[in-house]
Amino acid sequence: MTDPSATAPRRPGEQVLSALGLGAPAPDPADASPHTFPGGGRWRTEIPSCEGPEALAVVLKESSRLDVPIHRISQGSGVWMLTDAEITEMVEATAERDIELCLFTGPRGTWDIGGSTRTDSRGAGLRARGHDAVAGCVEDAVRATELGVKCLLVADEGVLWTLHRARTAGLIPADTTLKVSALVGPVNPAAYAVYERLGADSVNVPSDLTLDHVTEIRRVSAAPMDMYIEAPDDLGGYVRMYEVAELIRRGAPLYLKFGLSKTPGIYPYGHHLRELTLATAKERVRRGRLALDLLARHGADGYMAPLGSRLPGDLCRFGTSS
């Protein structure tokens, strides 16, 4: 059976523009991604920048009020910015709703002593500098998984490979999923395939990739893709709401991330940023509702992955033997 979401039943403004002789060419079936999540779903949802139990409570309340389904909630400040009690509270609250909780691991370039990330070249970017930074990421991963966290966010290829080896060796739970941050997201199919082979279970790509770039990636990898439908300003501030249906058609399996532009950064979070963090958490859910409404109006809201699903399916990996 042909997946109806692969043909995008209606595009924005299509009927009026066609009547005026300005219709776009029909979608090329060759552009559609052949991949799905396990079980056949083509898209999942994610609310990012949920920085602690209080922000999480706001997100869960607002998602119930606006009927926004959530597959994953992620945090950006890092495991080290949360107490054991806070992590446990977040684990329990998301488990009650069968939502995957993803916490960021360890030190990264912008919070390290190195100044190269502040130069025009951005130096080594957000990567973990030196052995101690990698060790800090591993420490966070062990602590988080022991407290019940099942998804870890990474911003360094070496950390990704190390944590993949750790789960293969049974040093962290085998069902831990590893998510590559937008801070280091790949921008071409060859790099995307490398991240998959290093152990990534989902890969956040920059939100300025073209639709053709997304198609190119899908021709070499089935690893789930994460994309900000609205990106925060420090990642470009892009708003791609009207492209959601086409992004799913080309990028499935795809996590729709509902970020927020035109707002100050909140990492690393502390109570001095409380009001901003709670307000933006609430608005991210509303942005999700707007995107889902667009999908429904275009007849492209089918084939959402079942709520509670989190695993990526069978992916290609490099061998982990020494």
Offer a quick outline of the entry.
The chain has 322 residues and is α/β, with parallel strands linked by helices. The protein is built from 9 helices and 8 strands. It has an 8-stranded parallel β-barrel with strand order 1-2-3-4-5-6-7-8, surrounded by 6 helices.
Description:
The chain is an alpha/beta fold and 322 residues long. The chain has nine helices and eight strands. It has an eight-stranded parallel beta barrel with strand order 1-2-3-4-5-6-7-8, surrounded by six helices. β1 (43-47), α2 and β2 (72-74) form a beta-alpha-beta unit. The longest helix is centred in the C-terminal third of the chain and has 24 residues, at 274-297.
Please write out the topology.
Layout: H1 14-19, E1 43-47, H2 53-66, E2 72-74, H3 84-96, E3 100-104, H4 130-146, E4 151-154, H5 157-168, E5 177-180, H6 189-198, E6 202-204, H7 211-218, E7 225-230, H8 244-251, E8 254-258, H9 274-297
Parallel strand pairs: 1-2, 1-8, 2-3, 3-4, 4-5, 5-6, 6-7, 7-8
Q: Give the biggest sheet.
A: 8 strands, parallel, barrel
Global mean pLDDT: 90
The helix tally amounts to 9
Shape: globular
Q: Cα-atom Rg, whole angstroms?
A: 19 Å
Beta content: 5-15%
**Helical percentage:** 25-40%
Assign the structural class, choosing from mainly alpha, mainly beta, alpha/beta, alpha+beta, or little secondary structure. Answer: alpha/beta
Labels describing this entry:
single chain; 322 residues; alpha/beta; 8 strands
